[in-house]
Amino acid sequence: MKTFIYYKYRQAMRDSTNRIIRLREQMALDGIDAYIIYSADPHNSEYPADHWKFREYVSGFNGSAGLVVVTKNHAGLWTDSRYFIQAEKQLRGSAVELHKMGMPGVPDYISYLTYLLPSGGTVGVDGRTVTEEEFRSLSRTLGNFGIMMNMRLDYAAEIFAARPALPTTSVWLMPAGKEGRTRAAKLAAVRKAMCEVGATHYIVSALDDVAWLTNMRGGDVEYNPVFYAYMIISETEAHIYVNPHKLTAEISEALSSDGIVPHLYEHFERDVAQIPRTSRVFYDPSQLNALCAALLPAECARIEGCGIVTRLKAVKSAEEIANMEKAHARDGAAMVRFARWMTENVGKVPMRELDLSQRLTAERAKDGLYISDSFGTIMAYGENAAIVHYEPTIETNAEIAPQGLLLIDSGAQYMDGTTDVTRTFALGPLTDKERLHYTLTLKGTIGLAQAIFPAGTRGTQLDTFARQAMWRYGIDYGHGTGHGVGYCLNVHEGPQSISKKLIDVTLEQGMVTSDEPGVYKEGCHGVRIENLTVCVEAKRTDFGTFLGFKTLTMFPIDKSPIMVELLTPQEIKWLNDYHQTVLKVLEPLVDGADLDWLRNACQPI
Fold it and tell me: Do the bridges between strand 493-498 and strand 482-484 make them parallel or antiparallel, or are there none, so unpaired?
């Protein structure tokens, strides 16, 4: 194994060096002093298709967040704290240096460029891979230092050897009873919102927005059931730009019945440039790529804001919520079958992280409505769990022993919902620090779950509910506490979030959001406990409407690591009540030894 890893590092160093040399040669031909390689595709997707993974091709780093800057004498990767450990391992032996964003003394990539490049220098990007919002901010800052931008440099087309083709997977219509709302109703809601902001045209570029609006799903992007497409909606017409081979006669007829006209995906940019010059065009600058924004006729009035579809789909309908509850129940039953086998056999039969990950996926795949996992399963034992977005590989595949902690963050896409659940299991004896960190994490999960707040509250105002117990011990975590979740769509969905970062979006009834605090001790262990919740009305008083959270995730929380003396009576009651709900929901779905395990796991403390 050591010989294999050493060879891989040597190969990575050679590959990265050769690719950067080729990139610098092209930069020199075009008079480019620095080139930025973003991690997105033209739709700003979290999980771009392999066709767009140029950053990974150049650097070897495959985390979902980060960018590479290549200059004449330096190549650097900028990524955040979730990926520090992963990036250090994957960049080892490569020609790319890690820059830890947010750490003392580490400039962001824009500051780095302003310091390094002279006035009159030029920075290149592929405008399809950066949003209009980010490109505008970058251009403004660099322009203050006399540095110019060139957004029309698709170096991946020149350098990306054996580049995978764009996906050609089929799309399908959501089954009857699973749509949530009809296509016609969604289009009507979109046009109503367009009228309210004075727009004649609306450009829809996010893949999950297109999928939701058309009540279609696909498989172009790993883990997210979406397909590559754009839409342009006017007051009287709707146009979708998609590979025509994806559309069956049934789908074409369904689209046509609601006035949606298909066009070639490749014709989108051409048609953006041909939008009538008297139009008032609405788009989301945090979603639309910079090149498309630049192609809009200069005479068009531009109206910017959070995507209309993004806002509409974030608030789930009663049908969507009811379906998600069913999906979470079946998902919990699959987790019970997996967890019972794992906890009873650890130390008795050989098992490694990848073995467990595959077994968990197989349990979920028994469900007739299962589509795929909703993200790469984080099956992290021991010190691997300290890597927030760890995903086991052949090189890191730890053997599971009957001691310490195992963190499992996993989920699935079902025809009737999307799941995302994290549990940390005690597999045997624990240290006092492991038990303390576990208990503080649980207190954070419960703290947010119990929150009651007035309508109009933003996620950043709720973030402290999950962190306050840890803060008393001088402990914190680097990731957000909660993200939005789609309905048979992206497991990470906006616009709402719960984090330290100020995002001016209020929590509304019907929004589904995760609750996932954690503690990570590098080189030792990691703990995270995550449930999905739906925002609901809690009460109405003379002071207005107050909201709270209803937990959707149905799976027991391991009680064995808890320092019960650190829990308040209210926290103990919440945990016992939650387990009684889990037992009531899952009892009809499991039997035999799995039912015995469930009943024991849900015993009150």
Answer: antiparallel
